[in-house]
Design goal:
The structure is a homotrimer of 340-residue chains.
Chain A lengths: L2 H14 L15 H15 L6 H14 L1 H20 L4 H5 L5 H13 L4 H25 L9 H12 L30 H13 L7 H14 L1 H21 L3 H5 L5 H13 L5 H24 L10 H13 L12
Helix pairs in contact in A: 2-3, 2-4, 3-4, 3-10, 4-6, 4-7, 6-7, 6-8, 7-8, 9-10, 9-11, 9-13, 10-11, 11-13, 11-14, 13-14, 13-15, 14-15
Chain lengths: 340, 340, 340
């Protein structure tokens, strides 16, 4: 990076800090490198539906706090999927908003979470991140008719396919955290839920959105959300908490509750339906609550359904439930849709 | 319920019995409670595509005849899904026609068929019934473009997800009738098909639409169909019979044939394609026959495909085949679509 | 066949050989039988997206060269699905272009590849071929909104359902080539890739499109492609080669690479995206290359995902990847779509 570039970056940083990003697109003097970096941070922010580079930066700090490997993975993945979008000539305002970054971010962490890192794995990550850009464009085109958002569907599809493929590829090895393939069995109540289960579970539910099993990372993410939107932060925490309560009431295993497994999808559903897609009032809050509860049930169902493949549910419950609740909304005139 | 309410009910009952329901919507003087009860009965009727509260009443009698538990379940489920629709402000004429009831009816029986009843199960039933209303609205919006009906898809999705979730929920226990998860194996011809296999199988095929393994309940359901539509009754019986014949010819196991397992989806396909969606003539009758045969094959396929999850096929073969045959119909100019 | 018919055939053959078919539709004097035969050959050609009866004829020769059973199966299947379309009154120009033939062709070979032939199997083949016509019409209607082609989706669906159903049908027996149901396991690098692996794998990758494990049949198919379109022939061979290279790099088992398993889907993706749907330039060639690589990964993933059902991936990776890449294309203004 040349001196001129660096100077441009600092000049811009000093003068252009705006309410929702380091750099605002209307600005004529933005250096392309800075614009790209800002797009990456917004991409990381979009993982929790925040078009805000400060939120993205804090999320990135939260990830690096827990794991340097995942920190670099998320930077590489976001950069690769964003660059693919730029090379294919996607509408620049979409790229600038980070829309072509968040699926790349997640797929990169996921692949390094489930596969041992080697050179082939890193190439695989770049390929998968590029793939999320194609799938996102396909899903956007597919769902445009119903005005339904793509959410993290490209991440879910790409991760499931790329991890599943390793069962045929002898040079890619899964890590210990990938579930072993097995047939689903009846559950029994395991362990006792204590106060620490609930506090850890609450923040782990936020942390798991980025595959981080670390309640402090979760708390940092919550701060990132707070900077971007108080409503989103409240929704996220309430969502994680509700998911946890549903799991507890139904008799889910204590270690799963503590790990935030039942929280991260519910947190995302709560952010999406409680703070983004609908005008918040009593009807939409009840609607969002129903969705959050069903998300926890859906997580249990999908994670059991994927057991014969030894695959994780990822954020598919969130995607499915938000799709259904947004698709259904035009038939419910009492719900007011946000003009986003 | 106040005396005034009761008086209104009897007054209305006495004067307003119409050809297809206890209460007709245009009527100004209908009491809301009566209107709600009539919507519930129509909802039960809609399980076999009949917007007719008399048919619904007779179906309910057929269920209570076999099991009081299932009788109450169907009332609760239909009421819960219908009430959810009313609370969310759904178009009243759709609610009045029972469209927001039949998926709730089925999901309630299904959950009590596959799960041991306890307080949590009943709460779960209400939650699932409410969920069918959201999914129905979503499917209606999704399929409106192609003018394809939603059928029992919301019931199938909700039941599969809610039963599957029990593999993670220690406080919900499955009953003995839920299949055990296993890997599909090659079949051999089992048992000998006799005259009693065929007669029992024929009526069980109608009974199984409501999860009742009772040929007399099946006969009562057939009477309900007959009251609503002679064409629907013939189609249903012929459909059940054809499904049974296909299974027999292909060498399916005798107990499965006797139980009506190969009949209920074929019966529903026959009612839908033979008496509802197309004008009946030689071309559409042949088309419906092909669909009924393929439904029996699809039932075999889907029930085997769900074996690794230990899940039943429910009415998914019916939904899938009718969707395909209705979606395909605009390309076949020889078929005349009913104006429904 | 009457003498008049035969004379008409020879007369037409002598005078009407055109650049892409034995018979051109505009011609007034074409005998219906000849027109039907030409439609069948075009249907066989359409398996590799070639509306060309010469290509179809050479493909048929390639199949008969390897197996007389499969040769007759492909003729029967194509005839049955084409005849179903004619009986249902489908737009004649679509039928004439072989669009209602190629799925029937493939489903017939597939069923005889996976099931022991007996009388019931042959009836089953005709039923399945008729079923592909309905599913094709449904898929055409479904995807028309996005201008996405149906490809071999009807073949994939029908074959999976009809083979899966045999787990319930005691009179249909699977052959030894159907995979046994099992749980996916981690792969290890097996065998050493030699020069003969690559040459055999390259042509087997073309041969496997028609389920033929015979490199010479593959070479004959390549000649058929060459006659129809040089671009398609190059794309097909490059696609098969790229799929093979990806599998080799990732450490797939040598026997699978040699058999062409990783080639046939990539070959089809290359033909579709490299020679049919986009104007060939640097951007679209790169786009097609990315798709071809992802197709090989997708094949690995889907074939592992279907292991618990003991089902083969067939051409589902090709269908899925081409759907995604065509659906995504409107968002990438640098890609120019072919006017087809």
């Amino acid at each position: 990076m040349k001196l001129k570039t660096l100077r441009a970056i600092f000049a811009t940083l000093a003068t252009q800090i705006s309410s929702n990003g380091l750099v605002v697109d209307g600005d004529v003097r933005i250096h392309p490198v800075l614009s790209f970096l800002d797009s990456i941070l917004r991409g990381i922010g979009q993982v929790m539906l925040q078009n805000n580079s400060f939120a993205g930066l804090i999320f990135l700090i939260g990830i690096f706090f827990n794991s340097i490997l995942f920190g670099w993975a998320v930077v590489l993945g976001t950069a690769a999927s964003t660059a693919t979008a730029l090379l294919l000539g996607v509408n620049r305002s979409h790229v600038r908003a980070g829309l072509f970054g968040f699926n790349g971010a997640l797929v990169a962490i996921a692949l390094l979470y489930f596969l041992e890192p080697n050179i082939l794995t890193w190439i695989y990550v770049v390929l998968a991140a590029a793939c999320t850009t194609i799938i996102l464009a396909a899903v956007l085109n597919l769902l445009a008719i119903w005005k339904v958002p793509a959410l993290t569907a490209p991440f879910v599809f790409t991760t499931l396919f790329f991890v599943m493929a390793c069962a045929r590829f002898g040079r890619l090895h899964s890590t210990g955290v990938l579930p072993t393939a097995g047939l689903p069995k009846a559950a029994t109540v395991e362990g006792i839920v204590t106060f620490s289960t609930i506090t850890e579970g609450l923040f782990n539910g936020i942390a798991q959105i980025f595959f981080q099993s670390n309640a402090i990372s979760g708390a940092i993410f919550a701060i990132g959300l707070l900077i971007s939107s108080r409503k989103a932060c409240c929704a996220g925490l309430l969502g994680s908490f509700t998911g946890l309560l549903v799991a507890w009431a139904m008799g889910a295993a204590e270690p799963a509750i503590r790990s935030g497994a039942f929280g991260f999808n519910s947190a995302l559903t709560a952010i999406a339906l409680g703070s983004v897609f609908f005008v918040l009032d009593t009807v939409s809050a009840t609607y969002a609550l129903l969705a959050v509860i069903i998300t926890a049930v859906m997580f249990a169902a999908i994670s059991a359904a994927l057991e014969p493949l030894g695959m994780p549910a990822l954020t598919s419950p969130f995607v499915l439930v938000v799709w259904l609740f947004v698709l259904a909304s035009p038939l419910f005139p009492r719900l007011r849709v946000s003009i986003l």
